[in-house]
Amino acid sequence: MKKSTKAIHTPFSRRDAWDALQIPVYNSMAYEFDDAAYMSDVFAGKVIVPDYSRVLNPTVMHFEERVINLTGAREVSAFNSGMAAISAMLMSVASAGKNIVSSKHMFGNTYLLVTRTLERFGVEPRLVDLCNVSEVERAVDADTCCVFLESVTNPQTEVADTRELAKITKKWGIPLIADTTIIPFTEFDGRKIGLDFQVVSSTKYISGGATSLGGLIIDYGNFPTISERIKKEMVFNLGGYMTPQAAYMQVLGLETLDVRYKRQAQTAKEIAEFLESLPEVMSVGYIGLDSHPNHNLAKELYGDTAGAMVTFDLVDAESCYGFINRLKLIHRATNLFDNRSLAIHPYSTIFVTLSDEERREMDVRPTTVRLSIGLEDVEDLKADLKQAIDSKK
Ligand SMILES: *Cc1c(COP(=O)(O)O)cnc(C)c1O
């Protein structure tokens, strides 16, 4: 079966009492057992059925099964946000005295998780240029617990070669972990490009209409000790497991992901080309453009589509503010891959609490606007962008 069929036709692990066609929201936090011995087997992990919804819930399990079916992963764990999945992932590999080799080009909260929160627990952040393989080789040592990257960095749109990084992590016997939120996992094979784990904010493409927060760890099963820690320690002890309501909405999102995503990626490409043609636009960041320095690499790794995040630079921050204020159709909002298009000035919002120097080092520029392209008609979007950029009217 092709993925768009699998997204809809993943069987339930048990027949529903009323043969419901869609997975019901099992809004029950506890489950009853017939006898004490069976109950003990469940608590001992010998039988995998729900006992308490902080650790296992039928609706969430079904969402996880659909993602397994779509990715070919060994295990999938759903959390109540992308950050809950990322923190559970990194806490499963890190411990005091270890280091995480990653980049300064990272989602704001992941950057703060690594450089502030985990650092406080004795984990050293080693932030290097992941596009420079010899620099990565020099950074990794016997205390490195993982190499962590983002598939397409936000907002820099940088792509590192995971196949090269995987050669290094394999040599050291450590996992290569990628946050692949920017291109959905239905578009590429994480295992083929060398990943051991993917983490995803399912708040984005999967929820689609910004209906629910969610996060996923997609685990290819190469590190059984880490898999065990995710399913047991992290889900049980941190309490970040997905809620049944969110899982229900994200199951619905998965069913339409393919059509929504293809349309959004196509529109984003047209928007990126349109922006490139405007004299007021200094540069456009979109991996789907031939002019993007990582265009070919991105295609090899992540396939023919290039996501629905487009960044562009205007001459100064004031022009960015003016542009954002004049938008009539595109919403001034954070979030990515909503059904409606969104615009934000990352420098003064997502990264505002960081110093000028830190933002410079992260290549978060005051001149950059980030767009998330939705499902509107491309001509309506172009018209709004054009009128908002034509400032000297
Ligand atoms: C949004 C996002 C996150 C965080 O996800 P939440 O669901 O908001 O917690 C992490 N990484 C990337 C690349 C994101 O875009």
Provide an overview of this structure:
The protein is α/β, with parallel strands linked by helices and 393 residues long. The chain is built from 13 helices and twelve strands. The protein has helices spanning 3-6, 36-43, 58-71, 82-93, 108-120, 133-139, 162-172, 224-238, 244-276, 295-302, 317-326, 356-361, 378-389; strands at residues 75-79, 99-102, 124-127, 144-150, 176-179, 197-201, 215-219, 283-285, 309-313, 331-332, 342-344, 368-372. The protein has a seven-stranded mixed β-sheet with strand order 1-7-6-5-4-2-3, sandwiched between helices. A five-stranded mixed β-sheet has the order 8-9-12-11-10. Helix 5 links the parallel strand 2 (99-102) and strand 3. It is globular. The model has no long low-confidence stretch (mean pLDDT 96). Pyridoxal-5'-phosphate binds next to helix 4.
Quick take:
The chain has 13 helices and twelve strands. It has helices spanning 3-6, 36-43, 58-71, 82-93, 108-120, 133-139, 162-172, 224-238, 244-276, 295-302, 317-326, 356-361, 378-389; strands spanning 75-79, 99-102, 124-127, 144-150, 176-179, 197-201, 215-219, 283-285, 309-313, 331-332, 342-344, 368-372.
Individual helix count: 13
Bound ligand species = pyridoxal-5'-phosphate
Computed CA radius of gyration, to the nearest angstrom? 21 Å
Structural class: alpha/beta
Q: Could you give the order of the helices and strands?
A: HHHEHEHEHEHEEEHHEHEHEEHEH
What is the CA–CA distance across the termini? 54 Å
Helix content: 25-40%
